[in-house]
What does this fold into?
Amino acid sequence: MYVTHLECPKCGAVFDHRKLAGLCTKCSSPLLVRYDLKKIKEKFSKKRLKHRSYNLWRYKEFLPIENEKNIISLGEVITPLLKLEKFGSLAGFKHLYLKDEGLNPGGSFKSRGAAVGISRAKELGVKSFAMPTNGNAGAAWAIYGAKAGIEANIVMPKSAPLITRNECAVSGAKLYLVNGLISDAGKIVAKAVQKYAIMDASTLKEPYRIEGKKTMGLEIIEQFGWKSPDVILYPTGGGVGLIGIYKALLELRAIGIIENLPRLVAVQAQNCAPIVKAYESKSKESIFWENAHTIAFGITVPKAIGDFLVLDAIYKTNGTAVAVADEDILHYQSLLAQNEGLFICPEGAATLTAAHKLLKQGWINPKEKVVLLNTGTGLKYPDTVQINPITLEPNGEIEIKF
It folds into this structure.
């Protein structure tokens, strides 16, 4: 392990990575894992990867696990980077790609954060944790917690997708539903953490989830032959994935693997767009979004604790933030399935919507290499699809029109 310490990105305070840590005790900011990048530069090589397993653990130099015996795995994979030939051509893109996280355990990118977060929790002797969630994160941490033998206490909005609730319940997690938003669930978790002194696994309130999400950035660069694409669009709620991708890019640049950084784009829904609003006013932090609601349930986060990190990543890469309408999300979700055979989640479809919007505005050049992050399989959101099947009698016939 090449971890040297934990660091507060706001006040610069340093913390011991060998002890369980939450937020900065001085300014309440999320903490980031720091590595000895000089040693990583000496040890890491592209050639060594050829002999390693094809999963996120292949990047072990960039991960915080000290003893590989503590790794908790459910079969994570290097997710495919698919070129959207047909849709891209129709929309006007020359090089449009989709990184499909729906093939990970539990059907979402959340398994990355859970795999690394739970593995490190086991290494630090954690026996129980609590977390608020919009669905997929709770499901992921519940199944990885079950594998590790760590008790999971999950609090999610009552309106969260039924499938993710079932994943938590079947894996033995203690599941609580709240009549409210994820922000309300977060308040309940905060009380429990203080009362029972258990690990707080809320978004960015432990420093290791981001290290798992970081591997998306490492994979993208490797999949492009160790070169950067021009633009990466990410559906942004808590924003951990975007922060993680940016962290990966900075670390790869520091050891000389890449030179240029792609422009990062935070994509939100119009009815919950605190990051977009902050970006448009050139603010460093966002303001709580009242009455948040969107069909892309996973990005319904009224106020992200790491909003300043998301905005910093956007500003530093000359990126942008875009809000899209729910009806457009569903439209593009259907368009992609009809043209590419890919059933992606609403959050992923939001990036497709945003990319086309930015292309038409001229912010994206048709010849640029553009990557969309689909954070989960559409199979977890069956209610977002409206179907109109034709009913037949047993002796009926289908009608074919050429």
Notes: The CA atoms of residues 124 and 163 lie 31 Å apart.
